[in-house]
## 1
Amino acid sequence: MLIGDWPRDKKPLHWTGLVHASHSRRSSNIYQNRSPSGIATRQLIWHLAGLHPRTGACITAQMLGATNRFKTIITLLRERGASPTLIGQTQKIMNTSYDVAEERNRIIHDPWYFGKASKLTFQRKSMPSKNPRFEIEYVVESTIGKTLKVIWVRRQKIGALSKAIHRATLAPLR
C-alpha cells in the first residue's frame, strides 16, 4: 500500500502500512476487550428472559450494537416489574456507552499507518459520525490509552448493574 508521511511538507505521500509496535499492542488490548457491554448485556437478556444461554444466544446474536441490547434489557426489566431506580441505572449506562463504543470501533475497524519519516501514527477515519471528514488524521497514542480506561470503567459499571439485576426481586415472566 503506497501511502505516505503526514502531508505537511506538501511532498508526495510515502507511507508504510505498518503501525508502531506500541500502537499495535494497545489496539490489540482494545480488540480483546471487545465492546464494553457485549457479553454482560447478552447474559442479562438471557437471565431476564429466562432463556438457556444456547437458546438466548440465537436471539442476541441478531442484536447488533449495545443500544439494542440495552433497550431489550430495559423492556424486560419493565415487564418483570423492576424498580424505577434499576431501570434508570440501566438507561444511564446505555446513554454513556455511545461515545466509547464509537471510539472503540474506529480504533479497531479503521486502517492505521505509521509514518516512516515522522514516526507518528495516523488513521484513516472512514466512518466518523460526529465529524464527517474522510481523511487521514494524526492520532496521539494516549487517545488509545484513554479509550481503554473508559472501556474498563464501563465494564465495571455494567458488572455492578448485572449484580444489582441478579439481586433484585423481579416478577416472574407471564
## 2
Amino acid sequence: MAVKEIERFQKVPRDRKKRTPRVRGQVSPIVTYRQSMVAQLLLRYYTPTEIQEQLHKLAISGDDPLLNRESADGLWSLPTISADKKKIELLWRANSVEKMDIKKAKLEATIAQLLQNAWNDNDYDLCLKCVDRLIKLYGLEHIDITSGGKPIEATVQIYLPQKGSIDERQD
C-alpha cells in the first residue's frame, strides 16, 4: 500500500458526526424530514436532479438535517432521492386507493338507503335511478358478454306494478 492510501484510511473528518445506530423498523428523523422535503418538491414538479440541488441549497442556508454528512460534497445521491420518490409515490397511491374505497362504500350505502326508501314509498322511477347508479358505481354498464366470439343478445325486462293494482306491495 502506498503512503497516501494508508493516510486516507486513517483520516476521519472532524466536522462529520458519527452515524447513529439504526434500530430495525425505525426510520431516522433525518430520513423522514428529507422525504417530506422531497415530497414538497415533487408536488412542484421538480426532477430528482433539481431536488438534489434544492436539498443542498436548503442545507447550506441553515437547514442542517438536509446536509448529507456521509458524502464528501454534502449532496444526497440521485439513487437515494429516486428511492424516496418511489416510496412517496407508492404512499400517495395507497392513500388515494384507500380513500376511494371509503368514498365508494359511503356512496353505496347512501344509494342503498335511497333505494329502500323509494321502494317503501312506491317510487319506482327513483328505484330504477338508484339501480342505475349502483350499476355505474360497480362499473357494470359496459360489460361485453360473448360466446364463441359472438355477442350474446339478452333482453332484461323489469316489471313495476302500477299503483292500485293487485301486485302492489302492501305493508
